[in-house]
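re: that chain from earlier
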Amino acid sequence: GADAAANVAFDIISNDQVVINATVPPSYTLALSGNTDNFSPLSLSTGLVGATTGITATVNTNAQNGWYLWGLDANTGLKSTTQLYTVASKTPGANATLTAGTEGYVTALPAAGITQGSGAGTTSAITAYASSGSGNGSGLDTSERQIAKSTGTSNGAIVTIKEYAAISALTPAATDYSDTITLVGAGSF
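^ sequence. v structure.
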């Protein structure tokens, strides 16, 4: 309970602050769930438009201004080398709905397959590729076509990409119809 006097010393200096610096570099990653997405055999007897299962593209980025996803395809359709024939893509950049029995091929982003994950942005399909249901989407060609975007940062944003195709009674039979779609993404920093 008693106070006691003590001697203390301290130094007052003119340079007593430490500045801390750090850099957070721009970051953008795009990962695909797979590299194949096959149709079941396309048939007229079912009266339906064929659909692939779909693959997902997952985007993680700290891009404050959002990000973009583009697609292009090597053949502008499903091409058979043995038959020298292509089931042509519908007009690239224009939304279309396939009809069973009439040839066509589209890429589609179903609304239920697009999620933002966490982050400050909103992820959405570009109107032409936003699918309202089976057989609805747009064609791709050898030019990069924007198919999806986000307005801000994303952690675990998912975009599901499917293809739909329809054949006619005159579509040549072959087991080697194929197409290669390339997906390209970038952040806007």
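The longest strand covers residues 154-166.
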